[in-house]
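hey so i finally got around to running both of the ones u sent me last week. sorry it took forever, my laptop kept dying halfway thru and i had to restart like 3 times lol. anyway pasting them below in the order u listed, first the sequence line then the structure token line for each. didnt double check formatting much so if smth looks off just lmk and ill redo it

first one:
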Amino acid sequence: MKLGRSLEDYLETILILKNHLGEVHSIDVARQMNFSKPSVSHAVKILQNKRYLSVDIDGSLHLTKKGSELANQIYERHRFFKDCLIEAGVAPDQAETDACQIEHVISEESFRKIKEAVKKEGW
């Protein structure tokens, strides 16, 4: 299920922060994304209502199984396209920016087919 770029970016950021920090709070997300705390709080409430995220009494953010699956899919796409673009000669900063765009618009079928083709060609 597509959530839209903004909410997908929140899930991806929470996943990345969780992997780096272990425990994630809204303020960590706000700092990482350079967003205001109220903007993050609003997104967290939406993600909670859609059952992608839970929040502990101490404010720790936790991806649900559904949230974790989607966040991992998005992050996998991001890493894949960033690596492909760098391999093709794109500057790392530009590859990061472009991968962040591509990860949200490509269909699952197209992503899978491109990934298979790249693997087959031995990139």
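and the second one:
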Amino acid sequence: MIIYKNFNIKHINSFKVNYKCHYYVIIENRNDLLELYKKNVFSKSKFIFIGGGTNILFKNDYEGIIFTINIKGISYKYDNNDIILNINGGEIWNDIVELSIKNKYYGIENLIMIPGRVSAAPVQNIGAYGTSLEDVLINVEVFDLNYGIFTYIDSNKCCFGYRESIFKQKKYINRYIIISINIKLSKVPKININYPAIIEYLNKYKIYNPTINDIGDIISYIRSYKLPDINYFGNAGSFFKNPIVTYHKYLLLKKINNSIKGIKLLNNYYKIPAYQLIELCGWKNKKINNIGLWHNHSLVIVNYNNGNGQDIYNFAKKIYKSVYNKFNIKLCQEVHII
């Protein structure tokens, strides 16, 4: 393992907030975890595990240890028309998607350009453009800090939901450390275009039989247009989740403003695009000092010029309060606040 003391975390969090942690430890193999466990590091120290730091906001210096899983490696197993990929947690998620597109392994092409490491993907149940990780996940290999053992958690035991998983539940946050995942992709062409932005693009450019490469290119284009580049603008993508409401609540929202357009889900629930609510509260293109909303996507809070974590948090709180006051909707954050 690699250990840094009094480490500046600016370049390991995508908001680029300028704080320090007591120690930053890079885990490079499974034996590192066993060694740390035997030395009681996890039981005696305050710590967190992060992936690429792309879905986290630090409000202050972190007075503990930040761990990152940097175990690399991919293996393949073929099963008739399926291919099972075992992917270690240190791999970059987007590299896996690009690899699958190149080899025409169908199933995760809609998840292209999602930043971060594989170890973070199950935590958030990453999803985009009609596809979620749970659609292809077989199981997750974890290091169980309660017992000091490596074990597997099947996908159906991960309690997946919209940007939710067992790994975000309070009692499990510092118990299961994600080491690798197994996913099942298909060698048989099966493309998911059931998403408005994709359909609009296909119709506009008269693409009637899209390939897996087309889908990758289309979603990459859409994301590049809508979202700021984390290499230049500090952000964590969408800060808030899209709220899910009952049909009755949806009708009440329509009475407040008829322009609100919900997406019908199962059991008569509706997903409300949070950006609509935010913009209807007057936040579009809003900026306070160094912090503001991205001009092409009102769900993205951007650290424009060396703002601090508390400033970002306060900006988000103002948005939360205005949406609640106007629509009686409590926005839930996607970003993990430390």
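quick thing i noticed on the 2nd:
The chain has four domains: 2-69, 74-186, 196-226, 244-337.
anyway thats it, ttyl
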